Amino acid sequence: MMQEITKFLIHPLLYVLLGLIVILLSKKHTKKLTASLVIYMYIISIPFPSVIISYNWGMADTFRSDIKYDAVVVLAGVCNLADYFCRQNKPEMWQDYFRASESVDRLIAGIYFIKNKNADVLLFGNAVYNSVSEAEQVKKYALACGLHERQFKIYGKVQRTSDEAKGVRSYAERNSIKKILLVTSENHMIRAYALFKKQGLTVDTFSVQKHYLKIGIRSFIPSFDGVQNLTRCLYELFGYVGYYIKGDL
Fold first, then answer.
1. Which residues of 24-55 are buried (b: 16+ CB within 10 A; e: fewer)?
2. Deepest of 42, 68, 165, 209, by most Cβ within 10 A of its Cβ?
3. Strands 132-133 and 128-129, how do they pair?
4. Domain residue spans in the chain?
5. HEC letters along 129-191
6. Tell me: the pLDDT tens digits for 80-101?
């Protein structure tokens, strides 16, 4: 619930709506308010701000190909669970169809590291959406990609990244796992790494969906993608601050 409230409050378009309400109710400075709103709308709708934020909100990979990890941890969010829920009455969609989210590169990288013998086991937390288990769908996909049952382990239920850090720590303690490779999206890595470190875990990192500083004319052309990308950046920034205030980092 708190995550949904945060997403609502940080969405840039919310403040466009509030700005329009202020303009409609205002009897003075209407032209200045309108001009300010137009400038704000332009800034939030172009890709440039999110490109700059994303480029500076990453961390260098510490993955080492010369060592073998006890486990590679792939963070949840690689499935579109809402799609699975909507297709509950279509068994063909459940049995032979993997509904990937935009973060599926995390899983692809994790499977690669296991198949390439960089790690012994892939650890995945079980996020559940309206009785739909992400871990079950991910496991079927991983096995179809060639992993063995012993190479895929579900370490517990999770709802947020802090649950994943705690769950991995508990699993690692029970199974004497020392060398861990953490895999997630680049814009999520700083927060995830800090949460795992807070739990006393020493992990190497590998980011997917990396951002590169590419600025051209399209960086200044408004688009809906510009708003979406900026919203994701703000969510990570405010998520980091929120965890910090709670003392989880």
1. eeeeeeeeebeeebeeebeebbbbbbbbebbe
2. 165
3. antiparallel
4. 2-57+223-246, 69-208
5. ECCEEHHHHHHHHHHHCCCCHHHEEEEEECCCHHHHHHHHHHHHHHHCCCCEEEEEEHHHHHH
6. 877 776 666 666 655 567 888 8
CA separation for the pair 158, 168 (Å, rounded): 10
The pTM for the full model equals 0.85
Q: Does domain 69-208 have CATH number 3.40.50.620?
A: yes
CA distance linking residue 217 with residue 86, whole number of Å = 39
Tokens encoding 232: 């994701």
How many Å apart are CA 169 and CA 87, to the nearest integer? 34
At residue 92, the pLDDT reads: 60
Q: What is the 3-state secondary structure (H, E, C) of 52-71?
A: HHHHHCCCCCCCCCCCCEEE
Which one has a higher pLDDT value, 97 or 68? 68
C-alpha to C-alpha distances, 93 to 10, 108, 120, 126, 137, nearest whole angstrom: 34, 20, 30, 20, 11
Distances 138 to 17, 77, 83 between C-alpha atoms, Å: 39, 10, 14
- Identify the DSSP state of 217: G
Radius of gyration of the chain (CA): 21
